[in-house]
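Design job #97: recover the sequence.
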């Protein structure tokens, strides 16, 4: 009996030791797994951080070189003369260019730029809404019209300007029709007359300016819930009221974004001046083209190389246009947008 008890105690002691050993082994395994998991997580986070830094390096470097450095350099150039000395001569030159009645001056360029901007805001944009609405309502041949309005984005600008120039020339189809109606057509043509050249290019801008607006506004209209329009139809809502009181409020967020983008181009609005008049003659100069000519020149003429005057012009117009754009954007944000 005593031996059996001793054997039993020994076996129980061995089993207890084995259980303790197993428990310690399991704990060591768990601890090892946790350490490996922590190490793998640290390695993953490090590799993720390296990957993100590598991806962001290029755009950050691009921003530092091509935006920050360029803008700081432009700001400094506005207060330097051609010899690199600090001076306000560029502001004097800007005022002389602005008030001069001769040649392709800043005053003429600003006036033409505002004409293009007004055409975009008050002609192209409203017509784009109306065209998008009729295509959205699926009028007869709406698929064909959708392609027709997208053509200017596909066809080369050189081909379009060539066709347009020949079409409105005195010997072209439009010139022939106008002459037959008794309209006095200039012998040199509308594009070669200083009094009509800008207006002719404005008409071209309207003709080719619907593409992107029609696509974006049409996409916004396609998101309008059909149930809203069906209920309006049951109530006897006419087409005009449906557009004004239903469609426009429902797509206002898209329209306001497009308008803000148009406003940011307040002093960048321009037509295809280089395609019609590479030297900027016939009083067609816009602000963008004037800056281009100052830097690079056009045709046989070289640029003036007066980067200080160009930088000064950009600085002044930034200070003028930025408060206007921010104020109008603030007003747009006050208009409540409809969520659906």
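Job complete. Output follows.
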């Amino acid at each position: 009996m005593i031996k059996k008890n001793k054997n039993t105690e020994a076996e129980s002691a061995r089993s207890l030791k084995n259980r303790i050993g197993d428990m310690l082994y399991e704990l060591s395994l768990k601890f090892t797994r946790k350490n490996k998991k922590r190490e793998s997580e640290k390695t993953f986070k490090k590799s993720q951080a390296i990957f993100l830094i590598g991806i962001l390096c290029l755009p950050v470097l691009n921003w530092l070189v091509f935006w920050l450095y360029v803008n700081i350099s432009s700001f400094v150039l506005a207060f330097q003369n051609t010899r690199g000395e600090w001076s306000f001569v560029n502001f004097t030159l800007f005022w002389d260019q602005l008030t001069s009645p001769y040649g392709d001056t800043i005053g003429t360029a600003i006036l033409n730029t505002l004409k293009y901007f007004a055409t975009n805001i008050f002609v192209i944009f409203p017509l784009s809404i109306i065209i998008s609405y009729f295509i959205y309502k699926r009028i007869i041949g709406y698929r064909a019209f959708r392609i027709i309005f997208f053509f200017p984005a596909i066809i080369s600008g050189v081909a379009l300007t060539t066709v347009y120039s020949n079409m409105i020339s005195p010997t072209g189809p439009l010139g022939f029709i106008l002459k037959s109606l008794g309209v006095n057509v200039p012998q040199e043509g509308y594009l070669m007359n200083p009094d009509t050249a800008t207006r002719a290019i404005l008409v071209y801008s309207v003709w080719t300016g619907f593409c992107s607006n029609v696509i974006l506004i049409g996409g916004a209209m396609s998101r309008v819930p059909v149930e809203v329009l069906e209920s309006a139809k049951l109530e006897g809502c006419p087409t005009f009221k449906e557009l004004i009181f239903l469609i426009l409020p429902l797509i206002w967020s898209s329209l306001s974004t497009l308008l803000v983008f148009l406003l940011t181009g307040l002093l960048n609005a321009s037509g295809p001046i280089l395609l019609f008049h590479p030297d900027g003659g016939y009083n067609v100069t816009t602000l963008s083209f004037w800056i281009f000519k100052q830097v690079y020149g056009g045709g046989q003429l070289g640029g003036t190389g007066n980067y200080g005057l160009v930088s000064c012009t950009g600085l002044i117009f930034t200070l003028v246009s930025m408060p206007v754009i921010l104020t109008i954007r603030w007003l747009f944000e006050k208009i409540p947008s409809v969520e659906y």
